[in-house]
Specification:
Elements: E1 11-21, E2 25-33, E3 44-50, E4 54-61, E5 66-73, H1 75-79, E6 85-88, E7 90-93, H2 100-112, E8 121-127, E9 136-143, E10 152-153, E11 162-168, H3 169-177, H4 184-204
Parallel strand pairs: 4-9
Antiparallel strand pairs: 1-2, 2-3, 4-5, 4-7, 5-6, 5-11, 8-9, 10-11
Length: 205
């Protein structure tokens, strides 16, 4: 769909401040933007949570038809009253100067002791919560050998306690359809794999 608005000419930034700066940062903006009827909005104020950008990767074993997922404690669902151990894809934050694919390979080793083979397939770039954070996530799927993978991994200095879950693809899809997969990169990557799986099994075997 062709956009009808221009980022520069259809947004007027009035003021910007940083009310919080810690490990993460919160920036506050006052702006107005062009409306679809051609007029301008009233000035609005919005806070944006700045935590950097991220990468997620779904390792897929085309020989065994298995995916490698992880399970770990997450604070946000705990605070929301939901079960706080989530089934997720391997993921990590992009450090300055790092390429997204390099992050995917590094995090796969750190979180699952999984070596991704070449090539990685870029599923897409997703804004995880565009109403409140600038974070976008490069989501990949990559070939691997899932034999022997499992156990608990993660960096002790980062307080990580990550359980590796190797599942046949159909089992993972059943979990998704039962509402047991609630992290958006895992949802996106599993649904993408459902569409491209047969092609990848031919190309990656």
């Amino acid at each position: 769909i062709e956009g009808v608005m221009d980022r520069d000419s259809d947004v007027e930034l009035i003021a910007k401040s940083t009310p919080f700066q810690g490990y993460f940062r919160v920036d506050k903006y006052r702006l107005r933007h062009r409306r679809f009827d051609g007029g301008w909005s009233a000035p609005i104020e919005r806070e944006v949570f700045e935590r950097g950008h991220s990468v997620a990767v779904l390792p897929y074993d085309p020989v065994r038809d298995c995916v490698v997922l992880i399970e770990q404690f997450r604070m946000a669902p705990y605070v929301s009253g939901d079960p706080p151990w989530l089934i997720e894809t391997i993921a990590g934050i992009v450090e300055p100067g790092e390429a997204p694919e390099a992050v995917a390979r590094r995090e796969a080793v750190e979180e699952a002791d999984c070596r991704l083979e070449a090539p990685l397939a870029l599923i897409g770039k997703s804004y995880l919560s565009p109403g409140g954070t600038s974070e976008h996530c490069h989501i990949f799927c990559g070939p691997c050998d899932s034999a022997g993978l499992g156990g608990v991994h993660g960096l002790a200095e980062e307080g990580e306690d990550i359980r590796v879950v190797v599942l046949e693809f159909e089992t993972a899809l059943q979990l998704l359809e039962a509402g047991k997969v609630q992290a958006s990169p895992a949802l996106i990557s599993l649904l993408w794999l459902a569409r491209h799986r047969e092609r990848l099994r031919r190309e990656w075997r």
